Amino acid sequence: MRVLVVDDDETLRLIVRSTLESRGDEVVEAEDGEKAVQLVANSGPFDAVLLDVNMPRLSGIDALIRIKDLSPTTFCLMLTAYTNVQDAVAAIKHGAFDYLEKPIDGDRLLRVMDSAIAANALVAQLRFSAPQLEFDTGRKIIGSSTQIQKVFEIIHRLAKVDTSVMVRGESGTGKELVARAIHVNSHRMKGPFVAVNCAAIPENLIESEIFGHEKGAFTGADRKKIGKFQFAEGGTLFLDEIGDISAQMQVKLLRVLQERLFTPVGSNQEIKTDVRVVAATNQPLEKMTQTGAFRADLFYRLNVMPITLPPLRERREDIAPLAQFMVQKFNKLHQRTIKGFDNRALGALRLYNWPGNIRELENVVEHAFIVEASELVRIESLPEHIQAMAAGKKEVLGEALGEPANGGEGPALAQVSDLNYPQLKERFEREFLIRALRAFNGRVNQTAEHTQMTKVTLLRKLEKYGIDPKSYYNQH
Hints:
Number of domains: 4
Largest sheet: 5 strands, parallel
Structural class: alpha/beta
Strand order of the largest sheet: 2-1-3-4-5
Strand content: 5-15%
Radius of gyration: 27 Å
Number of strands: 18
Shape: globular
CATH topology of the largest domain: Rossmann fold
CATH superfamily of the largest domain: P-loop containing nucleotide triphosphate hydrolases
Helix content: 40-55%
Distance between the termini: 54 Å
CATH architecture of the largest domain: 3-Layer(aba) Sandwich
Number of helices: 20
CATH class of the largest domain: Alpha Beta
């Protein structure tokens, strides 16, 4: 990890530096909060920042607030004397990951840093989930190397409050990952994270599973059972596929959200609960509220801050880095040294529509690891249905790799003799658009999808170059 240690005590900085460098961390030092903020602003993000609470020029809490504004994904740890523990606890409410009491215990420091590393790994996965947040204005923030920072900021804001959250998206888009990210960045991070798939539990058992039951509450209840709400006490309860619960369960869940009270099956005793609920669904709850299949009051209670995860086919630019991330994961898991994908295999991954989203991509990469014997995954190592898809789009795949189509000439770059960059760029772009329209018979929607452009961008470029997509209808 790249760590910034901020304290006006030079001896303490030396102790912390030695401890962290002993395990390979890169350590940078600063003697006050003002310099720490400057370093974060000017020398790139740090994985973690260790901040003393009391410092000259700028206090640790003020520095924390400014650092989190600059780099929401940086994990900040507060260093404090025993008498200032309350200040450190207050700092956690401003986004600090944890606090350490002085004198610094090396083992305790390393344990906390291990927790930060685990949270960093979760964030690394989250950047590929590409959450998309709907604003009232209709604007959308889609995950990318720059925009994902704004998504992290939203998660950071959600972590400061206990409001319920609704995560929307198709199966396999990473909804549970988002819920975990909210949990580990909140003051509940030391509490349990409990996940429940509502669709996987029979309707007659779901109330007992979530709220628990008393011995003898029903046939087969031969002992008392603790429900998921009690297991999640002080932490986060993730209710996946919330749209599948019955009308009766919807009423009981609404009561818990409103009153923070629930009653186990077969009991007369109400139990208070301190649990944050994050729900997820891939169902159209708005339509379900209109038909009465889902309670409108429960929907509005859960939908305070919705986060929508787009399907993988709508963000094809993320496929290559996500696949490479999985290569690293499976290299460690299977003790392999595969470097990545060759151009044709990667081109096929980009063309495929991924009905199973990220989960399906992960399965495909693991399949390739089992089959592939070389250091690069080739198209022959991909599942047969992806190979068949690529074969059916051979011309598109070849053009995506810059290969001549049907034995013809290559891209416009090879046809231009001058080196005027603006002119060269426009000629290439125009030729690329024409070839793409030919490949998809002038269908704008398909052309936009497979060229990884938005429909608005494609139409704007067609207008710029005076290209009429209708002239390419039915050219195959």
